[in-house]
Amino acid sequence: MTLRLSAIALASLTLVPMAAADDLRINGFMNITAGHLSTDDISQDGYDDGIKFDQDTLVGLQMAKQVNSSTSATVQLISRGSQNFDTQASWAYLTYAASDNTDVRAGRLRTPFFYYSDFLEVGYAYHWVTPPSLVYRLDALSSINGVDISQRFTLGSTDGLIQLYSGRYQDDLTFVGDQYNVELKRAGGLVFSLSHNSLSGRISYHQADLTMDINPLNAGPNGRALDNLAAAATLAGVGKDFVADNDTVKFYQASLSYDNGTSVLIAEWTKLDQTTAAILDDSALLVSAARRINAFTLHLTYAQAEDATESGTVGSIQQLAEYKETSVIAGVRYDYDSSTALKLDIQHHDEELVNGQAGDSGLLYNLGMSLVF
User: Fold this and answer.
1) 300 domain residue, yes or no
2) Per-residue pLDDT tens over the stretch 298-312
3) Which long-range contacts (CB under 8 A, 24 or more apart) does 305-313 make?
């Protein structure tokens, strides 16, 4: 279930409180993008061989109100072009400051899967038009209803953070082009990060019990991919392995970054591990380097993702849905004025395996403008 507000309701939220209280903080961000795929022989980030302007275009508004000395309320509303600009609440939580270094939050929270999770929609915060989707591939699960606790600490000149969260997710989820009903129960995770001068590191672990109806609510261009996979498994006598009913899903992440103000290096690795055979295990990584030269930032990124199949009959059926992909992204960012950046990315995407078959390669061109206000 997503929280939706009409344009009039959104306007009333943004205009009335501004004059009512000095301690209400309102910030906004916007990404305007255009993309073109050089060939329709590959599929990448929802683009095709025509120019699309809505796929990664979005506008967001974040409001934070200090209720009293220890409690605050935060709401982040986002309208996405890919969803016909319906407005949804990505964040809607209360924060209790238990101490100067300890916060407890409850409500709708950002799921802290990745290094950029907390500002994933704020394009101004990174050099790409959008982060590489081969690694940042769980955007549909980016918010969770639950509670978390964050503990900040300092060890000499090193700053650290420990975050522990628990919650539940239930909604419709688009997977390989089809829409399914998905529930994640007993979801939780732990994030640990350290930062020392220009260097920072982060590791995280996430786990949930997955229940998923393999009969799609709406079938996409792949033609009921999971349903067909399960049907083949049933014929082979291993159908029960392809049922997702309270099956444990684990997700691991690790990243290391360096930023001295001029040079930027970041490496991030993720791994998905689950007990159901209906969704394949996978691993992904990216390595990116960027160089700031006055108002320009030049960058180059390599990303890859590949599925892992099981052995025996189950693995033979999983190979019908196996993917292996790589991308090389070259781009430039131009901060032509304060709080505003113009970006151009050219991505060479190679589908080495698509549904177990040799794929094709092509170029994705992305032009975007990101701003914060």
Assistant:
1) yes
2) 999 999 999 999 999
3) 305/134, 305/135, 305/137, 306/282, 306/353, 307/280, 307/281, 307/282, 307/353, 308/280, 308/281, 308/282, 308/283, 309/280, 310/277, 313/236, 313/237, 313/238
